[in-house]
Amino acid sequence: MKRDQVFEFFRRLAEDNPSPTTELEYRNPYTLLVAVVLSAQATDASVNIATRPLFEHVQTPEQMVALGEDRVRDAIKTIGLFNTKAKNVIALSEALIRGHGSRVPGTREELEKLPGVGRKTANVVLNTAFNQETFAVDTHIFRVCNRTGLAPGKDPLRVELKLEKVVPQPFRLNAHHWLILHGRYICRARKPECWRCPVIDLCRYQPKTPAPGVKPSASRTASPGTSAARTGKAPMPRPPSAGRSRSRPTRLP
Description:
By secondary structure, the protein is mainly alpha-helical. It contains 12 helices and no strands.
């Protein structure tokens, strides 16, 4: 995607949603950190269901440690990997008390030293709690960046570094939120809703998904390596057109 196309891409997303933010519910930087740690391999909605009552009573590392691992585990048992996550939440809370005066650090290096905190989690916290221009690449952003051609890469780190290079001002601070929301609600994994996409003409994805009830045109029929490869369904073979053969005869001089 060219530089002017990238600018237009984000301009349209910003026009549709001028003030994007995380869908995780939190009270302060500490509860945001906990929520992001819990959101690994889980939906924001499922995390909010578990943390809503938890954060009514627990909003500091001291309160979390006092609650104890068993009760934390019970509070988050509806979230995947709740055993490991409960241990990490208690361990990172203890680390914050011991090494950071109970405050969430504002650097990636310090955040990544905390139990259960990786690069993506650190980037989310830095962006949302500290207003830093970071690009946390989750499954939605990875898909959107590769599918559209915005910032293609073989792994999340390569996509992140590509975003660092191509995302222009004034969109850098909120780019992470626009991309994740776009991937979550429009550029879906199994069937992107191209018919209502604001950047459809800038996106290289083919074939475009038509609106419900609209029959795709012949020019949008799936071919190997496109939607057929993504769905795992082979396209139906079509007979050769009249007057043509699949192997052209050699022309006589």
